[in-house]
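Journal club side-thread
Mid-discussion, someone asked how the predicted structure for our own chain would compare to the paper's figures. Pasting it here so we can look after the session.
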Amino acid sequence: MEEAPMIQTQDLACTICKTSMYIEDLYCPECGYPEKGTEREVALYHARRAMQKNQNMGADKKIKSARNILYVMAGIVLVFGFFGFFEDEDVGILITNAILGVIYLLLGAWTSKKPLAALLLGLFLYLTTVIISAIFDPSTVLRGIIFKIIITVYLGVGVYSASSIKK
């Protein structure tokens, strides 16, 4: 019975990411660097990485804008909670807005670790509160419509940017 030829598995390390590679590997399995490629392939690799970095920088700015919207939302909800409490002397308004404000603050802080999840939750929370307030008081639908659209757009763009980075 013949034995299969042994494949050389002496480890090499990728020049870029230092991932171990087999001698037979033409490209790094982790980052795709053409370890045994031509100068043109190496140049194309670096050009692609530079373009991805620029795209990520633009996405980071949009995520930061969405994070700031979450912080602004936290402040607005807290301020309106205090005004509602002092105007109606209703502790329920104060507690509800305090909880929402804290949630928006936590989501804003969480965007540095998990931007996609935090921004999606922030967007869903915002849309849910808008819908619930519209159910209880239909006149709130048109009040602050421009403000509602701006917040939704910023959070939506942040979600889109976070998902593009994840890809």
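Post-session note: Residues 56-166 form one domain.
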